[in-house]
Design brief:
8-stranded mixed sheet; 8 strands; alpha+beta; 4 helices
Length: 192
């Protein structure tokens, strides 16, 4: 995945990275297979879909949204998630002695709206005051820690979110159990 994005200028090229309809069940399964199977230092990763937790071996069962898909390029979607998990790993203050949690919450309720909502959150340290919004997070050279990051990953996350009109929101609030939240809304489409 990292080799794919070394040339950042072509990473958003629709010719090289075409979008396609991917069923919600496939999205959740892909997340499980790509991210829950990895081992992380200092934190555990949880996956929930409509308040049901899934594990490495769990069979993914999607009742709401069974014939529903999102239109995205899976490599770009995976990059977006990978950047946010790496960001938590670097900056949230997790360690072997201070274990944390990163949660991926997916929800879809066709009675409310036509979006698959994805929230990636962690219970580590909130962002410093310089980062108050997704726009602040996306600025090149704007980083929580100049020693460990250059701020380029946030820019790519924002560009991917903008490409797919995901209406990204960043919440950083030390009063919450999970102080850092990234919220994305994927427009859904019916599979025929």
């Amino acid at each position: 995945l990292l080799n794919v994005v070394r040339d950042r200028s072509s990473f958003l090229d629709p010719e090289r990275y075409p979008e396609k309809l991917i069923a919600i069940e496939e999205i959740i399964t892909h997340f499980r297979d790509s991210f829950l199977t990895r081992s992380y230092t200092g934190f555990s990763l949880q996956l929930l879909y409509n308040n049901i937790e899934y594990f490495n071996e769990s069979e993914i069962v999607v009742k709401e949204g069974q014939n529903t898909a999102v239109k995205i390029n899976i490599t770009q979607w995976e990059y977006l998630i990978n950047e946010l998990i790496n960001n938590a790993e670097k900056y949230a203050g997790f360690s072997k002695s201070n274990k944390g949690k990163v949660r991926a919450l997916f929800s879809f309720n066709p009675m409310e709206d036509s979006f698959l909502k994805m929230v990636l959150e962690n219970n580590g340290s909130p962002f410093p005051p310089i980062i108050k919004s997704i726009e602040d997070f996306a600025k090149n050279k704007n980083t929580s820690d100049i020693e460990t990051g250059q701020g380029y990953g946030g820019g790519m996350v924002k560009r991917i979110a903008d490409k797919y009109s995901l209406d990204p929101i960043l919440i950083s609030d030390s009063n919450n159990e999970f102080p850092v939240k990234f919220i994305f809304k994927f427009q859904t489409h019916e599979l025929v």
